[in-house]
Amino acid sequence: MTTAAKGPLEGMKVIELAHIMAGPVCGMMLADMGADVIKVEKPEGDDSRRFLPPDINGESAAYMMMNRNKRGIVLDLKSDDGKAVLRRMLETADVVIENYRMGTMEKLGLGYEDLRKTNPGLIYCEISGFGRSGPYATRGGFDLIAQGMSGLMSITGEGPGRPPVKSGAPVTDITAGILAALGCVSAYARKLQTGEGQKVDTSLFEAGITHTYWQSAIAFATGLAPGPLGSAHPLNAPYQAFRTADGWITVGAANQRNWERMLAVIGAEELAKDDRFSSNHARMQNLAALEDILNGYFSRQSSADWLERLEAAGVPAGPVFDVAEMHRDPQTLFREMVVETEHPKAGPVKAIGLPIKFSETPGRVTRPAPLLGEHTREVLLEAGYDDGAVDDMFGSGAVRSSAVA
Question: Which superfamily does CATH assign the domain made up of 239-243+248-319 to?
Fold first, then answer.
């Protein structure tokens, strides 16, 4: 259960000084791909430990989701000994991940310019609300704020004139973590060639902007900002959800061949001759009318009936699952996107698996999220401290553990 994952990043040492989501997503991705990720928590622990409910036997489900495959220690960075321990750990680290407010690490004497003096190969990954430069660099950032400012909330929702809607998932937090992991891996590839580290800087704001590629293309080309279209696509139709007799399905019949195949399936071949729908451009111009007509056809039969017929005809289509249904889907399970670890307090805990598959060096989820400070002694001994020195630091409060010290 506690064996390190043998993935493509085996040998990479990562110190995670990050909390809640974006930074922990980055650390989780690296850990799942084989890096040794040591999560450093403040004495009261990552704030997500207190995201309750839901819990499993008293342990935060949110914390356990984001922090599997990591070892955990507690350092009091307000103490000189706590900062000294972290500096020693960072002397041999490949990557450090932090998502504190701008200037916090520098005040602690742990900024990039300080650390690179003793570890020129250090990759210093900063994840923030708006990036470490520019007029908003000092602002704090949250997913909700980033979704609003990046334009995402203006293109999400049922249609024009309705209230702004954020994505149900914290997409800027998650995407920022993935972008940061990509940045760390890219910088690590260069380090393996040159021995040199560098700063990696990304933000929730930029993560949100990356999700507007299609809508930005429209705005750049036309000078007009597109608005929300419900489940529809801004460039192709029909490509959206339709109501059936017992629920909803999604249908991707945007290109001309699939459009004609779909019409044959639903028995609406006459629409192929309707000038309003004869081309993708025409369908986009008359999208509201097209939606009304197609909903009328799809509402005549069940989702299962339509999906069987559409699949047989080669038209891309699928059900609209809730999250629990997605967890049970055979493709989800076959692709190991639901995994399980054995937590010392919570017991069996399920989590989302690694979405990248490697043929020769597969990543694995082998370790549950750590108890608060579970690996403090283990990590300090690896850093070169002896048991006596570790005991002294436990006594002073510089390091802590709610597990057996």
Answer: formyl-coa transferase, domain 3 (3.30.1540.10)
pLDDT digits (tens, 9 = 90+) for 31-60: 999 999 999 999 999 999 999 999 999 999
Please state the rounded mean pLDDT for residues 103-119: 95
Q: Which residues pair with 400 in a beta bridge?
A: 74
d(CA 102, CA 230) in angstroms, rounded, equals 37
Q: Is 143 a catalytic residue?
A: no
> What are the angstrom distances between the C-alpha of 108 and each of 103, 193, 357?
9, 31, 39
Q: How far apart are CA 360 and CA 231, in angstroms?
A: 38
pLDDT digits (tens, 9 = 90+) for 147-157: 999 999 999 99
Domain ranges across the chain:
13-211+328-400, 239-243+248-319
At residue 402 the predicted structure's pLDDT band, cuts being 50, 70 and 90, is: confident
pTM exceeding the 0.85 threshold for the entire prediction = yes
Task: Decide yes or no: CATH 3.40.50.1980 for domain 13-211+328-400.
Answer: no
Cα separation, 403 vs 372, whole angstroms? 7
Q: Which residues contact 403 (CB under 8 A, 6 or more apart)?
A: 371, 372, 373, 374, 375, 376
Identical fold at 13-211+328-400 and 239-243+248-319?
no
Annotated active-site residue in 55, 173, 305, 387 = 173
